[in-house]
Amino acid sequence: ADTVRLLSSSQVVTSVVSVVKELMENSLDAGASSVDVKLENFGLDRTEVRDNGCGIKAADAPVMAVRHFTSKISSHEDLERLETYGFRGEALGSICAVAEVTVTTKTEEEDVSTQYTLDSSGGIVSQRPSHLGGGTSVSVAKLFGKLPVRRQFFSSVRKRKEEVRKVQDLLMAFAIIKPELRLTLAHNKVVVWQKARAADHRSALVATLGASTVANLLPVHQEQPEMVLDGFLPKPGADLSLTSSSTSDKTFIFINKRPVQQKDILKLLRQHHSAQYPDDAARHRFPVLLLNITVCPSSLDVNVTPDKTQVLLHNKEAVLAAVEALLVSLYGFHPE
Ligand code: ADP
Ligand code: MG
Questions:
Q1: pLDDT value of position 67
Q2: Could you give the angle at the alpha carbon of 171 between the alpha carbons of 193 and 309, nearest 5°?
Q3: Coiled coil: which residue ranges (predicted)?
């Protein structure tokens, strides 16, 4: 049974980034306005996410990391109007299976926080009072300690550095879509990236991408019967060096504020963007942009991959058509 748990957990928790993503989502679901992420040895020795959210009630603690426990939905109908990032109760339990987890938490009602040490099946091994203020801090140590092959994957310095960069890209995505959020990322006790609270998406973009890039982006907002598209796209004919990148890391696509990887939407954005430029200048580049597509929660299925980065849109054709129409109205022509 232990082996089965280890294997299924390693599909939710595939990397340091996926740990950070799950913990970040929990912090945001808890209403946090401030989150600090700390990595030690690229996150392999320790990854810690601390928030100022609502905390975990003492009564929920024994089950918080039990598989399929979630405080977020209570019926199938809730799934149809999902407004939280989490809903399956799988993350915390999965992380426990592949690392050593402690959770320190305090709700408003409690005077002192409690630190829980969890075992590999998510049960509480011990608990003690702690000095942490309100909110929750989850510490994940010795990631993949029991999965030498997975650990081996991160043995090259290049892979490990790439992992920290991916964590930063992920945090940037959350920073942009949640402007009011204060965020820091520290690696080996050095703050490598931070973002203060911002008033709106534009200021959040400036804080993450820089003012000169944002000066070359155009706010877009389009309401349709079934969806709303909004964001910031490169101005027609904008300076390529400021508004494109050789990787897709700065092409921030969200569906209902969830950072997603949607190949077909990305392809469409690239085609229309690069078609404006003569020659091959933009052929192999990705536009720097923010696009958030808001659809009715019931037309979105987040359960496609264990890590929730791929989603299934029931009205995908309509969404693609709307994105295409937006791009045509902005850039003025159909690429071949
Ligand atoms: P899910 O997010 O799908 O509910 P998780 O395994 O990620 O499942 O978390 C299990 C439960 O633990 C959540 O439903 C929530 O009640 C609690 N929890 C986890 N992290 C936090 C946090 N940072 N703040 C408050 N509650 C949390
Ligand atoms: Mg969760």
A1: 80
A2: 155
A3: none
